[in-house]
Design a protein that fits this description.
The protein is mainly alpha-helical. Helix content is 40%, strand content 4%. A hairpin with a 5-residue loop joins strand 2 and strand 3. InterPro entries: DNA_glycosylase, Endonuclease-III-like_CS2, HhH-GPD_domain, HhH_base_excis_C, HhH_motif, NTH1.
Length: 329
């Protein structure tokens, strides 16, 4: 077995070029390491090893013992001395007025209606309403903890198979029912930490549950609509990348008495007016009042409408897919 110049034995399975090279400024470049075993399984094993080394910390020896869970997001936020984005109160009031004049799917089938019809905000509200109705009938007419536990998982799956990720959610429903029976006396938990400990429950859903089930104002429920609209409106110092960053930024300046209502207001507005594709800016008062930096300006550039500010700069609107799974955010 050959040994490198430092005398350390060379790892088996590796072929290391002994000679390094120098760049024009004489900076030494580390010799390239080639692996004899290039099979898919070997490549995956080396990736796992590198990830373990990175997660071990600076010394690369002691594995991290930090529990996995929902991370604390440090978003670019407004300081406590700031009053929030410019004209945000006028923008908020304008959206609220427009919302009072329209009826969205969220108004008919959303989470706020869960006192009568349970809802899952990851799927279109109409689809969820149908799925929950089918599930309620399949388990005997009442979605109680006992009824769900007694039902076969195949019955649950067949009832909700029109919603997204229905196979995974079928298991979550059974697991949550068992946890509620064993740990919470068959009731809904009253704290955010307890709720996010349940399978399939993320921060957004936990906050909405506290709002609706217990009338507890613990924060802002941020879904894809809230994330998209607040970025289009420029309500963050820098564009946020995900729902938790958006929540952290909004809660740094928005008055807490608006935490609960902003979700339903923006969700409905995003479903009807400020849609993900082809927003109806011609029907939006924000565009008319020049309060939206992302308003559509009709143009024929390349045959498409251009999203632009008044200075014609393109506005970058981050795209987000909100998926909450157990142990992830």
């Amino acid at each position: 077995m050959s040994e490198p110049s430092n005398g350390a034995p060379q790892n088996s399975g590796r072929i290391t070029r002994q000679s390094g090279r120098k760049t024009r400024n004489d900076a030494f470049v580390k010799p390239k390491t080639e692996y004899a075993d290039r099979s898919l399984e070997a490549v995956r094993a080396r990736k796992r090893q590198r990830k373990d080394t990175i997660s071990a910390g600076d010394n690369g020896k002691t594995p991290s013992t930090k529990p996995r869970g929902y991370p604390i997001i440090e978003a670019p936020i407004y300081s406590s001395s700031d009053a929030g984005p410019e004209n945000w109160r006028e923008v908020y009031a304008t959206i609220k007025t427009m919302r009072s004049q329209i009826t969205s799917p969220a108004d008919k089938f959303g989470c706020e209606q869960s006192k009568h019809k349970e809802s899952d905000p990851k799927t279109k509200d109409e689809i969820t309403d149908t799925a929950v109705t089918r599930l309620r009938m399949a388990v005997g007419g009442t979605l109680s903890v006992e009824a769900v536990i007694a039902a076969e998982e195949s019955v649950i799956s067949e009832s909700i198979n029109k919603v997204g990720f229905w196979r995974r959610k079928s298991g979550y429903i059974k697991q949550v029912a068992c946890r509620l029976r064993d740990e919470f006396e068959s009731d809904v938990p009253k704290t955010l930490d307890e709720l996010v400990s349940l399978p399939g429950i993320g921060p957004k859903m936990a906050i909405l549950i506290l709002h609706v089930a217990w009338n507890i104002n613990h924060g802002i429920g941020v879904d894809s609509h809230v994330h998209r609209l607040t970025n289009r409106l420029g309500w963050h110092r820098k564009p946020t990348k995900n729902a938790e960053e958006t929540r952290s930024s909004l809660e740094s300046w928005l008055p807490s008495e608006l935490y609960r209502e902003i979700n339903l207001m923006l969700v409905g507005f995003g479903q009807v007016i400020c849609t993900p594709a082809n927003p109806r800016c011609n029907a939006c008062e924000l565009s008319e009042k020049q309060l939206c930096p992302s308003a559509n300006h009709a143009g024929k550039r390349s045959g498409r409408t251009v999203l632009a500010t008044e200075s014609r700069r393109l506005v970058s609107v981050p795209r987000v897919t909100v998926e909450y799974e157990e142990g992830t955010s």
